[in-house]
């Protein structure tokens, strides 16, 4: 329990920090500490989930070097897989199987294991995003979507609506002319904003970047980003993400996409 509290405190300290440069400089020490704790307690599910969460947050929000992002998302996924597969070996055995066979295994997931499922799904999504040029990795997207669908079916507002946000991004990749269904993505983005009560600013940034730009909707794009810049950043467990969202919003408004 003491190690689990320490892991939780480390995660909270990082996610509530309002200076991204401090996190960039200090987070590697946190991650190494968690690595050490996990090495001592390799079957501790709470530690593995915390490690996956922090590696994922560091890789996707604070690092831009592609090779390094790939390494960090690999570690994030490995930790989540270890925790999830110890509980659901059958599902993991079918993770590389055809979609229908994989989907058939998901009914065994206990509703009480929602945090475990969420760690497994989001670490896999982050791993794929870091390998967007790898068709074999992209082929797994439908499986991750299915996992996220199970999460929102059980708790549509889970983690400030972040499962909705992941689905919004995934479903805003292709325009209607190419068979995409971006309006479904828009619905997920709107739900993500609703469930976070507008406090998770990255939801509006991703909405602007993936849906508004795809649909060439500049009024929506600019409105969302200006709302991000005007909103307060301080929010429990979202402060770091919100600071990064503001930085990204400034960049998107300046790059003259339209």
CATH superfamily of the largest domain: TRAP transporter T-component
Using the 3D structure, state the CATH architecture of the largest domain: Alpha Horseshoe
Radius of gyration: 18 Å
- Principal-axes shape call: globular
Largest sheet: none
Give me the number of helical elements: 14
Care to count the β-strands? Answer: 0
What does the average pLDDT come to?
Answer: 93
- According to CATH, what is the class of the largest domain? Mainly Alpha
Strand content: under 5%
Defining key terms:
single chain, 258 residues, mainly alpha, Serine Threonine Protein Phosphatase 5, Tetratricopeptide repeat, 2 domains, 0% strand, globular
Verbal overview:
The chain has helices spanning 2-15, 20-40, 45-61, 66-87, 89-93, 99-104, 114-129, 135-138, 141-154, 158-170, 182-195, 201-212, 218-230, 239-254. The chain has 258 residues and is mainly α. The chain folds into 2 domains: 1-149, Alpha Horseshoe (Serine Threonine Protein Phosphatase 5, Tetratricopeptide repeat); 156-258, Serine Threonine Protein Phosphatase 5, Tetratricopeptide repeat (Alpha Horseshoe). The model has no long low-confidence stretch (mean pLDDT 93).
